[in-house]
């Protein structure tokens, strides 16, 4: 295989949900690269087959919390897109582990950039570095400059906020050889699309309840969502333009947005699930908020009591309930102004692709015959 003399990009967490979309996006749309190093703790061997005459996809097994692993992966590369992270708001992973991967891991990426002379770093942050906060303050179609009472207590948002701060502070730092490091941070809202693990869980749950989804959150609560393909596209553009206009993008944060509609978390999921015959029951929440909150507290108590025996980590807990019950949506054109970002996929296309994928879950379930359903698998 002949591989050209283009740039070498490293994608940490490249085998994850966003990471694997990003690798495919780079292969298809970034003409200036000859190698993509996919660095991950758990490798997805299928990505290796994506190598072509122009670009080699190299899978590197490593742990972001080990500096040596990161240094080795970055050696001789031009740019890093750092998406590796432990995404956990359910208490499945101890807080210390989340900090080790998300904060120490990011420190390692920064240190490795400095030691291995890598000048450019794009960091995948999250809307969670801003909110929602535990006071339930709504963030209604805000932008990067909107004032908000930021308050972090939970390990995941806390770790993302700390990591983002480190990344932004490192912008302009001297690296080995005397050049400067340029960094920027992208903050997706809730990502959806092909491969979204949480959507699989909601789909599975809906099958158990006869394709009925019982409304829990008032429909007026808006939750920001963005299509994974557009998040990947935005990373590609940021990486490209950070090198061309480092003084514009360096040290900046950008919310990731697209034309996905503003809806409640449940109504948004229904955009896809309804194509598989799912129905949402109730135009208002069926259970009063205080009961849902009690249930969430009960789940937290059970988690605490069972801790040491096994990990009890249901989707509903006081934190996820607070996030789902607080409006958090963005409306901004900062990324468009700074680096010409416009969504690559219109809402109709993002929806179509996601529905096709959700329907494919039904086919594979049917093949496996592992659901105790009465054969009602038909999709519209
Ligand atoms: N899923 C979402 O809705 C949102 C995600 N994000 C951010 O986007 C990024 C990607 O998230 P997803 O793709 O959803 O998560 P994911 O869990 O699918 O991907 C994360 C990847 O990081 C890898 N990883 C974890 N620990 C590692 C370690 N010690 N060393 C090396 N690799 C390790 C995992 O194996 C995985 O492949 C994360 O930084 C996350 O914080 C931001 C906003 C929303
Ligand atoms: C009926 C229940 C009350 C519904 C619970 C839904 C929740 C599990 C999800 C609602 C909002 C989600 C979070 C949000 O999209 C922001 C996120 C950003 C990230 O960086 C990681 C994921 C997440 C925290 C996401 C997690 C699931 C929700 C809390």
Describe this structure in words.
It is found in: Endoplasmic reticulum membrane. InterPro entries: 3Beta_OHSteriod_DH/Estase (IPR002225), NAD(P)-bd_dom_sf (IPR036291), NAD(P)_dehydrat-like (IPR050425). Helix content is 40%, strand content 16%. With 380 residues, it is an alpha/beta fold. It has a domain of 246 residues: 3-Layer(aba) Sandwich (Rossmann fold), CATH 3.40.50. A seven-stranded parallel sheet has the order 3-2-1-4-5-7-11, sandwiched between helices. The protein is globular, with a radius of gyration of 21 Å. The protein starts with 6 loop residues before the first strand and ends in a 12-residue tail after the last helix. The C terminus is likely disordered. Bound molecules: 1,4-dihydronicotinamide adenine dinucleotide (NAI) and the ligand CC(C)CCC[C@@H](C)[C@H]1CC[C@H]2[C@@H]3[C@H](O)CC4=CC(=O)CC[C@]4(C)[C@H]3CC[C@]12C. The site of 1,4-dihydronicotinamide adenine dinucleotide (NAI) has 24 residues, from helix 1 and strand 8.
Main features:
binds 1,4-dihydronicotinamide adenine dinucleotide; membrane; binds ligand LDGCRDGN; 40% helix; endoplasmic reticulum; NAD(P)_dehydrat-like; oxidoreductase; Rossmann fold; two-stranded parallel ribbon; 12 helices
């Amino acid at each position: 295989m002949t591989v050209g003399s283009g740039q070498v990009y490293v994608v940490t967490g490249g085998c994850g949900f966003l990471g694997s979309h990003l690798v495919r996006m780079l292969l298809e749309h970034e003409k200036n690269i000859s190698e993509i190093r996919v660095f991950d703790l758990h490798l997805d061997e299928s990505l290796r087959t994506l190598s072509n005459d122009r670009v080699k996809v190299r899978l590197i097994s490593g742990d972001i919390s080990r500096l040596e692993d990161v240094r080795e992966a970055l050696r001789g590369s031009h740019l890093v897109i750092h998406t590796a992270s432990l995404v956990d708001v359910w208490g499945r992973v101890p807080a210390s582990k989340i900090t080790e991967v998300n904060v120490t891991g990011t420190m390692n990426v920064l240190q490795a950039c400095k030691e291995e002379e890598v000048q450019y770093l794009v960091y995948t942050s999250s809307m969670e570095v801003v909110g929602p906060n535990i006071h339930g303050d709504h963030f209604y179609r805000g932008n990067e400059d909107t004032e908000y009472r930021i308050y972090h207590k939970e390990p995941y948002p806390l770790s993302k906020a700390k990591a983002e701060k480190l990344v932004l502070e490192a912008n302009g730092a001297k690296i080995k050889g005397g050049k400067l490091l340029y960094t920027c941070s992208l903050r997706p809202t809730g990502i959806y699309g092909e491969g979204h693990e949480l959507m699989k869980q909601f789909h599975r749950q809906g099958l158990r309840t006869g394709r009925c989804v019982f409304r829990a959150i008032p429909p007026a609560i808006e939750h920001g969502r963005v299509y994974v393909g557009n998040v990947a596209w935005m990373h590609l553009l940021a990486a490209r333009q950070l090198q061309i206009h480092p003084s514009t993008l360096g040290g900046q944060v950008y919310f990731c947005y697209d034309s996905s509609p503003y809806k409640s978390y449940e109504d948004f999921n229904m955009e896809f699930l309804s194509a598989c015959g799912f129905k949402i029951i109730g135009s208002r929440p069926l259970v009063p908020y205080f009961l849902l909150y009690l249930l969430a507290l009960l789940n937290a108590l059970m988690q605490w009591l069972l801790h040491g025996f096994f990990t009890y980590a249901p989707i509903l807990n006081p934190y996820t309930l607070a996030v789902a019950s607080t409006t958090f949506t963005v409306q901004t054109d900062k990324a468009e102004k700074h680096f010409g970002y416009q969504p690559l996929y219109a809402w109709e296309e993002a929806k179509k692709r996601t529905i096709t994928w959700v329907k494919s879950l039904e086919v594979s379930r049917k093949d496996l015959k592992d659901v105790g359903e009465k054969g009602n698998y038909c999709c519209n």
